[in-house]
TrEMBL record, chain A:
InterPro entries recorded: AAA+_ATPase, ABC_transporter-like_ATP-bd, ABC_transporter-like_CS, P-loop_NTPase, Siderophore_ABC-ATPase
Record's protein name: Iron complex transport system ATP-binding protein
GO molecular function: ATP binding; ATP hydrolysis activity
Family of the protein in this entry: Belongs to the ABC transporter superfamily.
Location of this chain's protein in the cell: Cell membrane
Record's GO cellular component terms: plasma membrane
Keyword Iron attributed: yes
PROSITE patterns in the cross-refs: ABC_TRANSPORTER_1, ABC_TRANSPORTER_2
Species assigned in the record: Roseovarius pacificus
The organism's taxonomic lineage, starting at the top: Bacteria, Pseudomonadati, Pseudomonadota, Alphaproteobacteria, Rhodobacterales
Membrane topology recorded in Swiss-Prot or TrEMBL: Peripheral membrane protein
Keywords: ATP-binding, Cell membrane, Ion transport, Iron, Iron transport, Membrane, Nucleotide-binding, Transport
Gene3D superfamilies: P-loop containing nucleotide triphosphate hydrolases
Automatic annotation (TrEMBL), chain B:
Leader sequence segment: none
BP GO annotations: siderophore-iron import into cell
Originating species: Roseovarius pacificus
GO molecular function: transmembrane transporter activity
Main location class: membrane
Name this protein carries in UniProt: Iron complex transport system permease protein
Family: Belongs to the binding-protein-dependent transport system permease family. FecCD subfamily.
Pfam family, one: FecCD
Gene Ontology, cellular component aspect: plasma membrane
SUPFAM superfamilies reported for this sequence: ABC transporter involved in vitamin B12 uptake, BtuC
TrEMBL record, chain C:
Protein name: Iron complex transport system permease protein
Domain of life of the organism encoding this protein: Bacteria
Organism lineage: Bacteria, Pseudomonadati, Pseudomonadota, Alphaproteobacteria, Rhodobacterales
UniProt xrefs under Gene3D superfamilies: ABC transporter involved in vitamin B12 uptake, BtuC (1.10.3470.10)
Molecular function per GO: transmembrane transporter activity
InterPro entries per UniProt: ABC_BtuC-like, ABC_transptr_permease_BtuC
Membrane topology listed for this record: Multi-pass membrane protein
Listed GO biological process terms: siderophore-iron import into cell
Keyword set includes Cell membrane: yes
Transmembrane segments: 56-76, 88-106, 112-134, 141-162, 182-206, 232-258, 264-287, 299-319
UniProt keyword list: Cell membrane, Membrane, Transmembrane, Transmembrane helix, Transport
Keyword Transmembrane helix listed: yes
Length: 258, 321, 327
């Protein structure tokens, strides 16, 4: 089945079990949001799907190929781009130089940048609207601009799948929406498979066409938001009574605590 | 690019000037160039067997230390780390002293220093490894081990009879006065091999600055890169120390100078090597001037130049927060 | 809890002090000879002489230096919120030692009382460097590396002086390695006075440091002056280090290890931490000195070396336990 399949995934971090047998499916060319309360293992699931943590048991396949048995780190890096929640901003690095880092999977000690690489970087800069800032220092950008630069780095990686770990945290609301719209555009125009961890369940319902809800290292429910997000489901997820109000603009439900 | 080239040209000229004025001609005995170049006589012997190897050793070991230090700094994401602060230098020094004191001769200094540096590197890497190589843990473990190894060298010194203690003490204040062509060849070989390997590694090392998560998402293996680079820099430093004795702060200072002047980030291998060589040549030149009637070893001057430079760098870094 | 552990620690220090008086290369000193501490012994009474003239100053120096450094370590660790800070690792001790060595070299042997000023200047200058690192103190790595650089530089300078003046070699070597082998005559009194001043400063800083432990913003909201707190704390560190160096040379790691021992004994709050750290530091140096005297027959391993061989592994263990993030 095209897309990413997770079967019986168990992950331990520093000896502590984090995921206790996760099954799930991420369809190709869709936008999937992983939601759940703090510490439920959503970031770990995303990192495991990006081949960043080795599972204790279970398997993850990308278009039918096992992430660990069939793909090496470099091949995987050409399939999946991953943006962590808190990337380290190198001191003094310029925006363009940062975005060029996205080409790393295609380069090597004796394989310098080619015209193809430069074109990919140009396209990422254009898509994120960073043309005016490309010679600025990354550490002097505003939070919203910096997040755009990091996403541009992931775009330049030119992968079929893009994973984002809480891309909107620490941004104000307009910048959050700005980033989510950009991500949706990447999905629609480039057909990129998007998987992101989101904190805000309303944004997840609005911008994702599939939701994976997790609690205590297990998947509670998953599917299109209009089908699976119900007051009962939310009650079990957050342990809190919620009410669903139809959204006048986008059609997705809006969740209000009761 | 032109800026870098300019630095190379200026430094090259400076280098030639150093060699021409101080190195070959201006030691304690004035050299008769014509006689020396004629190929025989005392002046020729002085030139070929004393002055030239001394300069070559200073330049080569400086370059080697510069490369080893610069790679380590970039890899540990800290401009202040360097092999001599994280214990590699102290291990090699303690190994050299142990060889002198235990064998009673200078013959085993080189293998002793190599062994000491290697063991220290294994200890530092092993003790700081905890499901990965954290730069912080590596540096702190290195600082602790460094002090312990200095203590071991101290105990050995206090255990040994006068003559060996004097030899060991002289080894511990590094310098180039005992240079010979065999040592030069050894350092040259390790510099060539080390430079090639570091050149290969620098692609990955330069890409660790956005954090391990992104590096791994780009298909790199940060822990493996750090392990290899650390081991390589330990070998380079040990070989250099085994020939010259410890030269504090050279491996620390070269990288920040190279990056600061060229305005580039990353390992800057060529410029780091150049600045390492310049620092050592400068320190060697200073060591030819007697201070209060004594020729002080070059290692002392590298410390006196490098220490304040490091503090200035720290304060500047602190000011930026 | 802290009280009981504190009492146990004090009892331990007392026992170690007694052990330091009785144990050593020269056998035959027994409990009955302790009378020599009160009544001047007969010139023929060898054990009594050894006890009064050698063991007593040595044990007092070990206790004083250890206690001063332990308290200094507690202060600097609290101030920098860095559990790895130590006046020895940060170069404060090296500063004091270099100040003394330079003075001794330039003006010949001086009575210990006159060495207070250079020791204070050296320690003060080194503390000023740490002050200059101000913002960098947030980064534990930068602080430690800066201290290592300072120590290495001062060590090289000291070696340079030793190479220039061969005659001063022995006199200067004392100031490059921490030791209580040959306590400079007449230094105990001035050093004790200095340590008392340092303790006073530390106590004055303690309450303010407690406020600062809640975060600088909270401390300021509570009316604590950050500048004054830093000045008091660094001053206390410098004065205490100078006192320790005056009797025992630059001892590293004591200020690192002692506060951890104190915390394990349940110390909370800067004041208690200082007192228990002082006890722990005294115990550590006494222990290292006793071990150095009896471990290898016919050879004395200086307390400074012993302390490093104990403290180094402790530092490595701390680094491993804290892993990377939360140091």
């Amino acid at each position: 089945m095209p897309g990413i399949d997770v079967q019986g995934l168990k992950v331990r971090l520093a000896g502590r079990p984090i995921l206790h047998g996760v099954d799930g499916h991420v369809p190709r060319a869709g936008v999937t949001a992983i939601i759940g309360p703090n510490g439920c293992g959503k970031s770990t699931l995303l990192r495991a799907m990006a081949r960043l943590v080795r599972p204790e048991a279970g398997r993850i396949t990308l278009d039918g190929r096992d992430l660990w048995d069939d793909l090496g780190p470099k091949t995987c890096a050409r399939q999946i781009a991953f943006l962590p929640q808190n990337p380290v901003t190198p001191e003094g690095l310029r925006v363009r130089a940062l975005i060029e880092r996205g080409r790393t999977p295609y380069l090597g000690p004796f394989r310098p940048m080619t015209a193809i690489d430069r074109a990919a970087v140009d396209r990422a800069i254009e898509l994120t609207g960073l043309s005016a800032l490309e010679h600025r220092r990354v550490d002097r950008l505003s939070g919203g601009q910096r997040q755009r630069a990091w996403i541009a780095l992931a775009i330049a990686q030119d992968t079929p799948a893009l994973f984002l770990d809480e891309p909107t945290t620490f941004l104000d609301l307009p910048h959050q929406i700005d980033i989510l719209r950009l991500v949706n555009r990447l999905n629609q125009e480039n057909g990129q498979t998007i998987v992101m961890v989101l904190h805000d369940i309303n944004q997840a319902c609005r911008y994702a066409d599939r939701i994976i809800a997790m609690r205590e290292g297990r998947v509670l429910f998953s599917g299109p938001p209009s089908e699976v997000v119900t007051p009962e489901a939310l009650n079990t997820l957050f342990g809190m009574r919620m009410r669903l109000v139809p959204d006048a603009v986008g059609g997705a439900p809006v969740i209000v605590p009761q | 690019m032109t800026r870098t080239r300019l630095i190379y040209i200026v430094s090259g000229l400076l280098l030639v000037a150093l060699i021409a004025t101080l190195g070959a001609g201006g030691g304690s005995t004035a050299l008769d160039w014509r006689a020396a170049l004629a190929g025989e006589g005392v002046d020729y012997t002085i030139l070929v067997h004393f002055r030239l190897p001394r300069i070559a050793l200073a330049a080569l070991s400086g370059a080697a230390l510069g490369i080893a230090g610069s790679v380590l700094q970039v890899m540990l994401r800290n401009p202040l780390a360097s092999p001599d602060i994280i214990g590699f230098g102290a291990g090699a020094a303690a190994g050299g002293v142990a060889a002198i004191v235990l064998s009673g001769s200078l013959a085993l200094v080189a293998p002793g220093a190599l062994l000491g540096g290697g063991l220290a590197a294994v200890a530092v890497l092993g003790l700081s490894w905890k499901s990965g190589l954290s730069p912080l843990a590596l540096v702190l473990t290195g600082v602790a081990l460094s002090l312990m190894l200095a203590t071991v060298a101290d105990i050995l010194l206090s255990l040994s009879p006068g003559l060996q203690a004097a030899e060991a003490a002289r080894f511990l204040t590094g310098g180039f006065s005992g240079a010979d062509w065999a040592g030069v060849l050894g350092v040259a070989a390790v510099l060539a091999a080390g430079w090639a390997c570091m050149g290969w590694l620098s692609f990955s090392v330069d890409r660790l600055d956005t954090g391990d998560e992104i590096a791994r998402a780009h298909g790199l293996r940060p822990d493996r890169v750090r392990l290899t680079a650390a081991a390589l820099s330990a070998v380079i430093v040990s070989v250099s120390v085994s020939v010259t004795g410890p030269l504090p702060f050279v491996s620390f200072l070269a990288g920040p100078l190279a990056r600061g002047i060229s305005g580039k980030a990353g390992t800057c291998l060529g410029l780091s090597a150049l600045f390492g060589a310049l620092i050592c040549l400068g320190a060697d030149s200073l060591s030819r001037f007697p201070v209060a009637g004594t020729h002080l070893p070059a290692g002392l001057f590298t410390a006196m130049i490098g220490g304040p430079a490091m503090l200035v760098l720290l304060v500047r870094q602190g000011g930026r927060g | 809890m802290a009280l009981r552990h504190g009492a146990t620690m004090l009892a331990g220090v007392g026992l170690l002090f007694l052990g330091s008086l009785l144990l050593g290369a020269r056998p035959g000193v027994g409990l009955s000879d302790l009378a020599a501490l009160i009544y001047p012994p007969d010139p023929q009474d060898a054990p009594g002489i050894v006890l009064r003239e050698m063991r007593l100053p040595r044990s007092c120096a070990a206790l004083l230096a250890g206690a001063a450094l332990g308290a200094a370590g507690a202060v600097i660790q609290t101030l920098s919120r860095n559990p790895l800070a130590d006046p020895g690792l940060l170069g404060v001790n090296a500063g004091a030692a270099f100040g003394i060595a330079l003075t001794v070299w330039l003006s010949g042997p001086l009575p210990a009382g006159q060495l207070i000023v250079p020791a204070l200047i050296g320690a003060g200058l080194a503390s000023a460097v740490i002050w200059a690192l101000g913002a960098a103190m947030r980064n534990p790595l930068t602080l430690i590396l800066g201290g290592a650089a300072l120590t290495a530089m001062l060590g090289a300078a000291l070696r340079g002086v030793m190479l220039i003046d061969n005659g001063a070699l022995d006199a200067l070597r004392y100031w490059s390695v921490g030791s209580v082998d040959a306590v400079p005559p007449g230094s105990l009194g001035p050093a004790a006075l200095l340590a008392l001043v340092g303790a006073g400063l530390a106590m004055a800083a303690a309450r303010r440091l407690d406020a600062m432990a809640l975060g600088e913003d909270v401390a300021q909201a509570l009316g604590t002056s950050l500048g004054l707190t830093r000045a008091l704390a660094l001053g206390a560190t410098a004065v205490l280090s100078a006192a320790a160096v005056l009797v025992a040379g630059p001892l590293a790691f004591v200020g690192l290890v002692a506060p951890h021992v104190a915390r394990m004994a349940g110390a909370s709050g800067t004041g208690t931490l200082c007192v228990l750290s002082a006890a722990g530091g005294g115990a550590l140096v006494l222990l290292a000195d006793i071990a150095g005297r009896i471990i290898l027959p016919g050879l004395v391993i200086e307390a400074g070396l012993g302390v490093t061989l104990i403290g180094g592994p402790v530092l490595i263990w701390l680094v491993r336990r804290h892993a990377a993030g939360d140091i």
